[in-house]
Amino acid sequence: MSDTPAVTGGPEAPAAAGRPDAPAAAGRPPLYFIHGMWSTPAVWAGLRERFEVAGYNTHAACLPYHDRDPSLPPVAELGKLGVQDYVDFLVADIARLPQTPIIIGHSLGGFLAQAVAARIQPPALVLLSPAPSAKTGVLAINSLRSMWGVIRHWGWWKSPTLLDDAGARFGVYNGVPAEVADAEIKALVWDSGRVLFELSLPGVAKAPAATIDFGRLTMPVLIIVGAQDQITTAAVARATARAIGSNVDYHELPDTGHWLFYGAAMTKVGDLIAGWLKQR
């Protein structure tokens, strides 16, 4: 991976992992994937492979410090990075690409995709289980239960955080086969408490970056969410669709939770994205 511009308050982080040897399709913009909180670019491996075979060039962002071995103590500075730091990092990373990409984000990445899109105007936007913005937050007991292992610790809002096993199994990997969930939980990495604070309590955090300028999201938007998502609930996705407006295609998958990157769920998500992209 090549270096990328430094993030405010942090070291240089790896740029988006691209695969320049992927077969390019004439006239197709590249696909740029943004992972979620406590996650890494590795979650996109299956979908990237599918779309590269179909002729797309793909790139997967790695948010600051998310390439660090989770068994190591977290870097204290990570907990102080805010939403604006993540957005600025992604805008700078995308600027290095030869063509403005279609942006695809999951969970926190779904929120960040909107914030970035409002600034750079990509040709299209795909939001998978998007995290809430200041306008689209919906109070949900299951979301609080999912994150209880994080937010019960004093000072979480200014420290690195890591989702605990119980919260991960309840909120992220509900309905996922045990062997898949076990492997994914081992791969979780530390993330910013500040970012979590700004998105979960934007009024208290006084974080302007948690507000999306929906008037600038005029490009075609695809939203996909699992009906049984416990952590970024379908209610958030519906609120996001309403806020964006008439240029949205919305799909709510029955019997599906937050984790969309395995088995039949990933196949369905890939089919929906592929079919939608063909119409663009």
How would you sum up this structure, described in words?
- GO terms for molecular function: hydrolase activity.
- It is a single chain.
- This protein has 280 residues and is an alpha/beta fold.
- It has a single domain (17-278), classed as Alpha/Beta hydrolase fold, catalytic domain (Rossmann fold, 3-Layer(aba) Sandwich).
- It is 36% helix and 12% strand.
- It contains ten helices and nine strands.
- The protein has helices spanning 45-53, 83-94, 108-120, 141-151, 165-172, 178-186, 193-200, 202-205, 234-244, 263-278; strands at residues 17-18, 31-34, 58-60, 102-106, 125-128, 160-161, 191-192, 221-226, 248-253.
- The strands form two sheets. Strands 1-3-2-4-5-8-9 form a seven-stranded mixed β-sheet, with helices on both faces.
- The longest helix has 16 residues, at 263-278.
- The radius of gyration is 17 Å and the shape is globular.
- The two termini are 31 Å apart.
